[in-house]
């Protein structure tokens, strides 16, 4: 049986290029509806990359308190809205949890680029007196954690991790530590929103983005035609609690975080191999299970040939058998700090509904020898999911999610 101190997920909310809210996102994902489109938030005609996974239809005037809108970047508005939704979804009465027993741990990658660009433009074109005071905090990596914790009175052990695409898993791992140290509830996850010229040029510098202009052929993880990834915005926020207190209040439990590990790749040119496979193995060890008990892997799905080959090799070596591999981010783009958090939420929905989402539009390269789920979502008996994530610069993380009683 599941231990009473096991960290479980009791609420979530999603803001993604393919849908806002759990059910809109999930139905679009299962239907294979892609959110990759020409960029509309700014004129990208002069850039080599012109496609992205933009969130459309998000109205901050409705989802965010009016006083906070002029104080916050779009990434923080996403975090505030998703945090509200996750708490509502959890049906948790915060009055039953002391303020210092509530914590927030989020992932961040880009910071508040869009807000910062606007203020810098004011500085250059109009003068320093036109730069708002909120510039000092709206761009900051900890802005999401700070604003969410203030809004909901979370005064416990709050924090932020900045490990790029791996951040959502690292934040959940840290949230589990905070729960083990006595917190009653932790809001975790990540959101990103850096689709503006200033943010965009920093992404282009990696050389990893796809320059294709056909949305259906631009981001193709594990495909023989893969040539890079596309950026996106959005993410997910999740509520974590100890299983004992969640069960005592009769909470709906999406799944448990039964294993987690992280590691850092060796520097370029090193003879040592990437650490993803070892990180995945340590996560399984942390969960107390062997690879045969994993029902599906949510891949990092970098979309570049070398990184796809390395991940496919890590999966083959770890399992030694065909295991279904999901790559739903092919439909959203890579959301940076929001990416792994969205994968966590998607994996929990996979557990809830016993179905594996397909990477729509992708054809698995047979040379990679992995069972990539494509074309149509696949019903399956799912008790345990392994989620993998890699962040630019060498960050690697893995998390194991299990149904209560099945870990």
UniProtKB/TrEMBL annotation:
It comes from the Bacteria. The keyword Acyltransferase applies. GO terms for molecular function: 3-oxoacyl-[acyl-carrier-protein] synthase activity. Keywords: Acyltransferase, Transferase. One of its GO terms (biological process) is fatty acid biosynthetic process. The keyword Acyltransferase applies. It holds the Pfam family ketoacyl-synt. Belongs to the thiolase-like superfamily. Beta-ketoacyl-ACP synthases family. PROSITE patterns: KS3_2. Residues 4-403 form the Ketosynthase family 3 (KS3) domain. PANTHER family: POLYKETIDE BETA-KETOACYL SYNTHASE 2-RELATED, POLYKETIDE SYNTHASE-RELATED. It comes from Paractinoplanes tereljensis. This is Actinorhodin polyketide putative beta-ketoacyl synthase 2.
């Amino acid at each position: 049986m599941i231990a009473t101190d096991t960290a479980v997920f009791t609420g979530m909310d999603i803001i993604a290029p393919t849908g806002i809210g759990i059910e809109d996102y999930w139905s679009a994902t299962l239907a294979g509806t892609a959110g990759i489109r020409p960029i509309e938030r700014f004129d990208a005609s002069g850039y080599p990359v012109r496609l992205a996974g933009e969130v459309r239809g998000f109205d901050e005037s409705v989802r965010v308190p009016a006083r906070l809108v002029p104080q916050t970047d779009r990434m923080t508005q996403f975090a505030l809205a998703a945090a509200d939704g996750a708490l509502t979804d959890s049906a948790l009465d915060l009055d039953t949890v002391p303020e210092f027993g509530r914590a927030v741990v989020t992932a961040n990658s880009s910071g508040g680029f869009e807000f910062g660009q606007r203020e810098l433009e004011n500085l250059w074109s109009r003068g320093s007196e036109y730069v708002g005071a909120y510039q000092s905090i709206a761009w900051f990596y900890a802005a999401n954690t700070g604003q969410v914790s203030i809004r909901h009175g979370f005064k416990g052990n709050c924090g932020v991790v900045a490990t790029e695409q791996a951040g959502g898993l690292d934040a959940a791992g840290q949230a589990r530590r905070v729960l083990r140290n006595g917190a009653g509830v932790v809001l975790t996850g990540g959101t990103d929103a850096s689709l503006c010229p200033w943010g965009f040029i920093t992404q282009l510098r990696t050389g990893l983005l796809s320059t294709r202009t056909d949305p259906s052929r631009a981001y193709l993880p594990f495909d023989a035609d893969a040539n890079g990834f596309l950026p996106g915005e959005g993410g997910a926020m999740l509520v974590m609690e100890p299983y004992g207190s969640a069960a005592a209040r009769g909470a709906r439990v999406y799944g448990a975080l039964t294993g987690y590990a992280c590691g850092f790749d060796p520097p370029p040119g090193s003879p040592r191999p990437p650490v993803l496979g070892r990180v995945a193995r340590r996560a399984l060890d942390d969960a107390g299970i062997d690879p045969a008990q994993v029902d599906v892997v949510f891949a990092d799905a970098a979309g570049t040939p070398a990184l796809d080959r390395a991940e496919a090799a890590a999966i083959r070596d770890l399992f030694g058998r065909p295991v279904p591999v999901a790559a739903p981010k092919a439909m959203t783009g890579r959301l940076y700090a929001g990416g792994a958090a969205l994968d966590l939420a998607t994996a929990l929905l996979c557990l809830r509904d016993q179905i594996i989402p397909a990477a729509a539009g992708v054809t698995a390269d047979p040379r990679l020898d992995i069972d990539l789920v494509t074309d149509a979502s696949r019903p399956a008996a799912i008790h345990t999911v392994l989620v993998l994530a890699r962040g630019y610069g060498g960050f690697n993380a893995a998390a194991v999610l299990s149904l209560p009683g099945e870990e």
